[in-house]
Design goal:
Protein name: DUF429 domain-containing protein
Number of domains: 1
Structural class: alpha/beta
Largest sheet: 5 strands, mixed
CATH superfamily: Ribonuclease H-like superfamily/Ribonuclease H
InterPro entries: DUF429 (IPR007362)
Pfam family, one: DUF429
Strand content: 15-25%
Number of strands: 7
Mean pLDDT: 94
Amino acid sequence: MSAVAGIDVGGDKKGYHLVVLQGTSILCSVNSKAPEDLVQVCAEHDVVAVGIDSPCQWRSADGARQAERELSRKRITSFSTPTRQLALSNAKNFYGWMFNGEYVYQALASSYPLLVDKAYSSGRVSFETFPYAITCALLGRDVASAKRKRTQRRELLEREGMDTSLLKSIDAVDAALCALTAKYLLAGKVDAYGDAVGGYIWVPATTSLQSW
């Protein structure tokens, strides 16, 4: 079974959390502030797909990203991605983590290009996803709870057969959920929200939860 990975993107202080998954086995959990380190770890484990918890595109001047609008219609909330210019003008660097996401997509681009089609066919790719939407897809929107995320998300991974002892923080748990979505992507059990212009957000199909 192919190895996959997930990346949780944080601000400059927290950096990136990477989890590599093969089947139900967590091969490693890494915290780094250098995107290049993540690329190297993925290459060492022959990772095929990388799910990233960060926007893959900035909002255009014409309005919100299509992916975020579609998720909102399903009552799944997400961060509203600003235009790049608006993010740059924020004096408190509130959107710094989104720029860190931009850096990791750039670092991965040559080895794991962004998935820009609405269906995965083959080859190495990176793609956007995020833990709350993943939890909503697998547990149901009325069950998924941001307030209970520390316990609920870990329990979801364990329900999928994973030993979560290597995951020492909620950031690592979130990275593992992104890796789980990469596993579903390779199996063709995902839904894509959005369009090519604003980028796609991928989450497990709502009927996907099962034993592997």
